[in-house]
Design a protein that fits this description.
The chain contains three helices and ten strands; from the N terminus they run H-E-H-E-E-E-E-E-E-E-E-E-H. The protein has 302 residues and is α+β, with helices and mostly antiparallel strands. Strands 2-3-4-5-6-7-8-9 form an eight-stranded antiparallel β-barrel. It is elongated and about 60 Å long.
């Protein structure tokens, strides 16, 4: 009887394992349960001839997505732009003439209810959009000309993540651009460092800035969530109110930096130098601070 019972349990366990294994292949789920992956073909059906509202860090851009692969965006009465859109390896790719410095930017799109979440290649959630049926400027936009419907291409891009242009800032003096230490992809690091300086968009979540020289840089309210800033030179940098959630700051030099009100929740600050840094109301909840130098937690949020 015991042998039969053990055999029954073994068979039941195997069946349960097989059923569970089959169930995991039914849908691709986004990080942290943020919805279901949308394919390139689905994106074309969803977006062609419709309008999307992209919400990103307090800004909203209304974008008309035309059947011919063109798009027209309005952020405010004075901030308008046009460009092209397509799909690539089941990613949504956007290329504006002016926003994002003219670079093509590709995102993984995950649907959760009526909301579509955009993720960068590094897995950072950049923004989200909702869809409104139809476009105001006609099926192909004003002066659209004759172009083909958005296509599905084979080669992925690794362009950094910038969508909505930030308000123009007054001219500032910025330090020279140089990388002191590179990863295995120096082109990406150089591009992402350039993203910080060109126009000072400061919107670079998930960027590779390892070893970058950002000493005395003006990065107030910058979005560097999930960015790789290990070994970076951030001496006396102005990072007031910056979003640096989950950023990698291992061995970074932040001495004298202004981090007042910055969000470093979940960031890695192992062996970072924070001597003389302003940490008033800095959010350090969940941050790793092992071996950090000169860390004064008196005014920080823990």
């Amino acid at each position: 009887m015991n042998a039969q019972f053990r055999s029954f349990c073994l068979v039941s366990t195997i069946l349960l394992f097989l059923v569970a294994g089959c169930g995991t292949k039914e849908a691709t789920v986004a990080p942290a349960g943020e919805g279901t992956k949308i394919t390139g073909a689905e994106l074309i059906d969803l977006l062609s001839g419709n309008t999307i509202s992209i919400h990103e860090y307090g800004d909203t851009a209304i974008i008309e997505m035309y059947d011919n692969g063109k798009m027209y965006a309005v952020k405010s009465k004075t901030e308008k732009n046009d460009g092209k859109w397509s799909t690539e390896n089941d990613k949504l790719c956007l290329k504006f003439k002016r926003w994002g410095f003219g670079d093509e930017i590709c995102y993984d799109v995950f649907r959760k209810g009526e909301q579509y979440n955009l993720y960068t290649e590094s897995g950072i959630k950049s923004s989200y959009f909702t869809i409104t049926p139809g476009v105001k400027r006609g099926p192909q936009g004003k002066n659209a000309g004759s172009e083909r419907k958005p296509s599905t291409r084979a080669t992925a891009t690794t362009s950094p993540d910038v969508m909505v242009e930030q308000p123009a800032a007054p001219p500032v003096s910025t330090p020279s651009i140089q990388e002191t230490y590179q990863t295995s992809t120096p082109q990406a690091a150089s591009r992402d460092l350039g993203m910080i300086y060109r126009g000072m968009s400061q919107n670079c979540p998930g960027c590779n800035l390892q070893g970058a020289n950002l000493a005395e840089a003006s990065l107030m309210r910058a979005n560097l969530a999930g960015a790789n800033l290990s070994n970076a030179n951030l001496v006396k940098a102005n990072l007031k109110w910056a979003n640096m959630k989950g950023a990698n700051l291992t061995s970074a030099d932040l001495s004298g930096a202004n981090l007042a009100g910055a969000d470093l929740a979940g960031a890695n600050l192992e062996r970072a130098d924070l001597t003389g840094a302003n940490l008033e109301q800095t959010n350090l909840r969940g941050a790793t601070i092992n071996g950090a130098i000169g860390l004064d937690l008196k005014k920080a949020i823990r």
